[in-house]
Amino acid sequence: MSGERFKNIVKKSFSIAAICFSMGILFIGIGFSFFGIYMEPVNIIRIWIGFFILGVLTVFRSMFDYTQWARSKPFYIKNILFMPLYLMVALIMAISIVRGQGVNMSLPLMISYAVLFLFFFTIRQFIEYFIQKAKTDKMNDALELFQKEHSWDEEE
């Protein structure tokens, strides 16, 4: 893999992680304010560490896309392969935040976090599917136009 491609993968991966970090802080802040819970400042550092780890996982996920095996597979197979790693990091981050608030993590709470993760993961899959489909449709339209233009040249 070339150095330039690796730089682009790192930039893209950490841009995604930064956006998710910002949205995560926003939603966590709204949730904590809604329930009137004070968030310890160290929890923001824990969240940052969690999203940094997610950024590193995203780099590996993006590098995996360039392997020979992964190129022949649909995007959702690759996402499902990496989903347990993302889930594990998200649950560890949630457990550390909850424990940082002085609350013991119960099994129903952990299951609700896992269900919430899977809900957002599924929504992201649908969004990515429609983005990939739009790109494929655009490429197919361009290919059809190219074939029409060249078929006329052959008839002349």
Kindly describe this structure:
By secondary structure, the protein is mostly helical. It contains 5 helices and no strands. The model has no long low-confidence stretch (mean pLDDT 85).
Short description:
By secondary structure, the protein is mainly alpha-helical. It is 87% helix and 0% strand. It is built from 5 helices and no strands.
Give the integer mean of the pLDDT values. Answer: 85
How far apart the termini lie comes to 44 Å
The low-confidence parts are none
What is the string of SSEs from the N terminus onward? HHHHH
Relative helix content = over 70%
Which structural class is indicated by helix and strand composition?
A: mainly alpha
Most strands sheet: none
What is the alpha-carbon Rg in Å? 21 Å
Query: Which shape, going by the Cα principal axes?
Result: elongated
